[in-house]
Write a structure and sequence with these properties.
Distance between the termini: 52 Å
Strand order of the largest sheet: 2-8-7-6-5-3-4
Bound molecules: 4'-deoxy-4'-aminopyridoxal-5'-phosphate
CATH class of the largest domain: Alpha Beta
CATH superfamily of the largest domain: Type I PLP-dependent aspartate aminotransferase-like (Major domain)
Largest sheet: 7 strands, mixed
Structural class: alpha/beta
Shape: globular
CATH architecture of the largest domain: 3-Layer(aba) Sandwich
Strand content: 15-25%
Length: 360
């Protein structure tokens, strides 16, 4: 007995976890600075922690009201209807739900290369094919409408990541509009704004009123500090919002997750502090790292370091975990997540020591 042929599916390669590295090195995870997964270094909002505690005794029942409440709160925040908000298990879940709703077997998706690997994984899970548009280092990974349209060949879904992981580059609002207008009638343009809170650029959610071929993804994993709870959402046009009921895995967004997300959504101070720290840290990283870096709209900075695997391995031994971008197809780059005002300068010191060590 064997599963179906899975040879086309590649496993997701996450940033390395502190527990995992601590076990490998035989040290305490608290002695490590983890800057490999673009998490919130301040953690979740205290209000979300309270909500998690308060929800604990009720987890014997399926989540219903909390899911509805979260959809309504998100809708309110963005000025859309609750039906337009697809609450999902992480933004990853929203990617799957869109694949379920849009892909017939053999349909293709167009994804950025380098880029977030789950777009292509989800398409393959749903028996779809994958094409890519190149983001070129020589062009500072610029994301323009032409970058996408030069490669576009009528794919059913086109993914835009803004800010982009791992480069930090963004699409302008004009470019998103140009793309939504230029693609075929049955092509869905998906704007992944997982890092949207960290940029000044306006969300593409504002474009949904005028475009029924756009969907926007957001998450509570990054700026809201709830990565461990797996809550995200898609915002979709009114015209086909009701597809959610047909593609939603029952109760996939958990009671604890929905309650914590609701509390986090209300804590503007925590969000403000988070964004302010990330903006400070990315400036600090760009200024003090002894390596070329790229401008970033996210809570991370991409740096060109030569042998990324060797640099990441060396910093790890010195207690700082960064993301080797080899799995993104960038074997000479690392991605460093923004830490706090305390951890970031220490991480930069360690990184610069590692760079010096690897370069000799
Ligand atoms: N989109 C992008 C660009 C990401 O980097 C990530 C997480 N690394 C996600 C989506 C998924 O986030 P989550 O499922 O945790 O919401």
């Amino acid at each position: 007995m064997q599963p179906r042929d899975l040879s086309d599916l590649s496993p997701y390669v996450p940033g390395r976890g502190a527990e995992e590295v601590a076990r490998e090195l035989g040290i305490d995870p608290d002695d490590l600075t983890k800057l490999s997964s673009n998490e919130n270094p301040h953690g979740p909002s205290p209000a979300a922690i309270d909500a998690i505690r308060e929800t604990a005794p009720t987890v014997g029942v399926y989540p219903k009201a909390s899911h509805t409440d979260l959809g309504e709160a998100v809708a309110d925040r963005w000025g859309v209807t609750p039906e337009q908000v697809w609450v999902t298990p992480g933004a990853d879940g929203a990617i799957d739900y869109l694949s379920r709703a849009f892909l017939d077997p053999g349909d293709s998706v167009l994804v950025p290369e380098p880029g977030f690997s789950y777009y292509r994984m989800s398409a393959r899970y749903h028996h779809g094919d994958v094409a890519s548009y190149p983001l070129r280092k020589a062009e500072d990974f610029a994301q323009t409408a032409d970058t996408v349209l030069d490669a576009y060949d009528g794919e059913r879904m086109v993914y835009l990541t803004s800010p982009h992981n791992p480069t930090g580059a963004e699409f302008s609002r004009e470019a998103v509009v140009e793309l939504a207008d230029a693609v075929a009638e049955d092509t869905l343009v998906v704007v992944d704004e997982a890092y949207g809170e960290y940029t000044d650029a306006p969300s593409s959610i504002g474009l949904l009123d005028d475009h029924d071929n756009l969907a926007v993804l957001r998450t509570f994993s990054k700026a809201y500090g709830l990565a461990g709870l797996r809550v995200g959402y898609g915002v979709v046009p009114d015209a086909w919002a009701d597809a959610y009921a047909r593609v939603n895995t029952p109760f996939a967004a958990s009671e604890v997750g929905c309650r914590a997300a609701l509390a986090a959504l209300d804590d503007d101070d925590h969000l403000e502090r988070t964004v302010e720290t990330a903006r400070w840290a990315r400036d600090y990283l760009r200024e003090h790292l002894d390596a070329p870096t790229w401008e970033s709209g996210g809570n991370f900075v991409l740096a060109e370091v030569g042998d990324a695997a060797a640099v990441a391995e060396t910093t790890k031994r010195l207690g700082v975990i960064v993301r080797d971008c080899t799995s993104f197809g960038l074997p000479d780059c690392i991605r460093v997540s923004c830490g706090t005002r305390e951890t970031t300068p220490h991480a930069v010191e360690v990184l610069n020591d590692a760079l010096a060590e690897v370069r000799v």
